[in-house]
Write a structure and sequence with these properties.
The protein contains 14 helices and 23 strands. It has 446 residues and is of the alpha+beta class. The strands form 6 sheets. Strands 3, 7, 8, 9, 10, 11, 12, 13 and 16 form a 9-stranded mixed beta sheet that branches. The mean pLDDT is 95. The protein binds adenosine-5'-triphosphate and magnesium ion.
């Protein structure tokens, strides 16, 4: 992509309404544009990151054997009356009337909708477990939308649902999601701590929030510091292993979000010097809630003994749009964003320091087309701005690696390579560039 052709409306000033760094940087780097309170348009740079995160989440759900579906954003109120949540949900729910004056709503979550799909089609224990997910926009009329995409009113969520014959089977599904979440967040370069959590109005007994430590997080979290160094090689855990054992390794450490926290329990289970209290961002939440919805909505199956049984359910959310902000909170410096390679909007930023010079343009054009041929996603700054503007823009948008071409390249026949994260600079002969690109592709340095 040529920058001259890329819609990247960077801001010089930090917008005054942006209180936290991720919101400031997302606005400054032209990733999002506010539509109304808590509702944003995603501009090209932001959308690329959102899609990358979405695809990692999707890939990990598929690997865990969960089926992707797509449910609507607008749901009939009748389903929610069946579950009893139409009244309970209160003002957070956006209620709509269609032209026939039927009550509808913009989905804040999808337990009712998915239970309806399930009960229409699954009638026998032989078809269990059934695991379904979708990635869809949600609307919650939050009391205080703030921090940009971190607490939006409209936001993108991956929500999955499990249906099992009984509590034991349901636990197995729960563990599967637990492991898949650890794998997902690790792939994004995040250390997400599974925290024992309250199940709230949803009820039931298995619930964890996945939280990343951050000063700007809205949750208070308490945990045994040793969980941070727990490394059960989660990326290698296969789903046919004994997952309970792996989950147990994490559950051995005391963790609790503020609603569940108990000082005496904390003191009894964690040595004083390992006790940690911090702020955190909730990026995922899994819970199992038994037959709450299946009983209310009559989702039952035939058991092997020929009896009817209500299915045991769980639901499993990941805040995809919140993750964009959360990743920036955990990876930035004073110059701007530092994207982990796997979610970076481009792999490389190619900077032409003198686009009035034909020789330099030719070198850049060559490098640009070679990178494209190698399937490297490159943002080529071919604009006429001065070097200072170009450097600060490239640093702001945080691509992992920069290639800088200018007068020096003509004199020395060398390209300057700069790593955004470490600031390390090195020089590569123009003719050695193809080799260098092969190497960095192999080493996942981009
Ligand atoms: P929170 O406690 O932050 O309000 P929640 O517990 O209400 O979140 P869940 O119903 O568990 O949220 O939703 C699953 C995930 O969706 C959350 O873990 C979070 O990452 C994301 N999420 C929830 N609300 C929002 C929001 N207003 N804006 C962006 N992401 C959100
Ligand atoms: Mg939650």
């Amino acid at each position: 992509m040529r920058l001259s052709n890329f819609f990247l409306p960077v801001l010089k000033e930090t917008p005054s309404e942006a209180e936290i760094i991720s919101h400031q940087l997302m606005m400054r780097s032209g990733m999002i544009s506010q539509s109304s309170s808590g509702i944003y348009s995603w501009l090209p740079l932001g959308l690329k990151v959102l899609k990358k995160i979405e695809n990692i989440v999707r890939d990990e759900q598929n690997k865990a054997g969960v089926n992707e579906i797509l449910m609507p954003t607008i749901q009939p109120a009748d389903l929610w009356k069946e579950s009893g949540r139409y009244d309970d949900y209160g003002k957070e729910m956006l209620r709509i009337q269609d032209r026939q004056e039927r009550e509808m709503l913009y989905g804040p979550t999808n337990e009712e909708q998915v239970t309806d799909i399930f009960r229409r089609s699954i009638k026998s224990y032989k078809d269990l477990p059934t695991l379904l997910y979708h990635i869809q926009w949600k609307f919650r009329d939050e009391l205080r939308p703030r921090f940009g995409v971190m607490r939006g009113r409209e936001f993108l969520m991956k929500d999955a649902y499990s249906f099992d014959l009984d509590h034991d089977e349901c636990k197995k599904s729960y563990y599967k999601f637990f492991i898949s979440y650890l794998k997902t967040f690790r792939r994004m370069g995040l250390k997400a701590i599974p925290m024992a959590a309250e199940t709230g109005p949803i009820g039931g007994d298995l619930s964890h929030e996945f939280v990343i430590i951050s000063d700007t997080g809205e949750s208070d979290i308490y945990f045994d510091k040793r969980i941070l160094s727990e490394d059960s090689k989660i990326e290698d855990v296969a789903y046919d292993n004994d997952l309970e054992q792996v989950v147990q390794q994490y559950n051995n450490y005391y963790t609790a979000s503020d609603e569940k926290f108990d000082q005496t329990e904390f003191d009894n289970n964690v040595a004083k010097d390992q006790q940690t209290k911090s702020k955190g961002i909730e990026v995922g939440h899994i819970f199992s809630f038994g037959t709450k919805y299946s009983e209310a909505m009559k989702a039952n199956v035939l058991t092997s003994e020929g009896k009817q049984a209500y299915v045991h359910m769980g639901s499993y959310g990941i805040g995809i749009s919140r993750l964009v902000g959360a990743i920036i909170e955990s990876s930035h410096d004073t110059k701007g964003i530092i994207w982990p390679n796997v979610v970076s909007p481009f792999d490389i930023g190619l900077i032409n320091l003198k686009s009035s010079d034909e020789k330099i343009n030719n070198i850049c054009d060559d490098i640009y087309s070679n990178l494209l041929n190698e399937n490297v996603d490159v943002l080529y700054d071919d604009k006429k701005d001065n070097p200072g503007v170009k450097f600060s823009k490239m640093d702001l948008i945080g691509l992992p690696l920069q290639m800088i071409i200018g007068n020096k390249t003509i004199e020395t026949n060398e390209v300057e390579i700069k790593y955004r994260k470490s600031g390390e600079v090195k020089y590569i002969k123009v003719e050695n560039l193809p080799n260098f690109v092969q190497e960095i592709k192999k080493s996942s340095a981009i």
